[in-house]
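Hi there. Long-time user, first ticket. I'm pasting a complex I've been working with (about 228 residues overall). I'd like to know whether the download I got is complete or cut off, because the file seemed smaller than I expected. Thanks.
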Amino acid sequence: DGGITQSPKYLFRKEGQNVTLSCEQNLNHDAMYWYRQDPGQGLRLIYYSQIVNDFQKGDIAEGYSVSREKKESFPLTVTSAQKNPTAFYLCASSIGDRGRNQPQHFGDGTRLSIL
Amino acid sequence: QKEVEQNSGPLSVPEGAIASLNCTYSDRGSQSFFWYRQYSGKSPELIMSIYSNGDKEDGRFTAQLNKASQYVSLLIRDSQPSDSATYLCAVKQGDQGAQKLVFGQGTRLTINP
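Hi, the file is complete. Here it is re-exported in full:
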């Protein structure tokens, strides 16, 4: 089945540690996105990518990094510079600019906590 | 002013009644609007999209768009307990090659049996 797979489902980070969240899609979508959601809040955009080997900062990119080496994959690294990383992280994808009105579809998310 | 605003609720509606969820947005150039439903602990799922002024119906759901007033709403008819969730309004913004969704903070809806 086509879809978006995020792993792991739960992740714990120690002080000073970088951790990487995986996002893979087999929908042949051009665009991929990373969001952060804090309890009782909406989604805030961290990074997005409209095409392979290119990505843009979202509203809260500080302390995060991404890469887009393959169309199917858009991993997010939460660096030690992100002092408050505890949140629910959501990856999404869409057809991108080929379909102006196309929605984004989401993976199941990764919950990150500090040990 | 936030780019996309929703009443955070909680909104409580009796079973079988109509639930009305509202959203306003600040970017007058926005063209695409989406409603997502998010159950507690789960990821958002798309339930409606709307691009033209007026109403769009899909089963028990009706989305309404008024671009002049920069207002989009979602009506849920014959509300069921399974409709209890947080509803997120999302607005697509940006230029070609850099389009993104901007989300409201969500409205928590509770349907009372």
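A couple of notes from our side: Chain A has a mean pLDDT of 92. Chain A has no helices and eleven strands.
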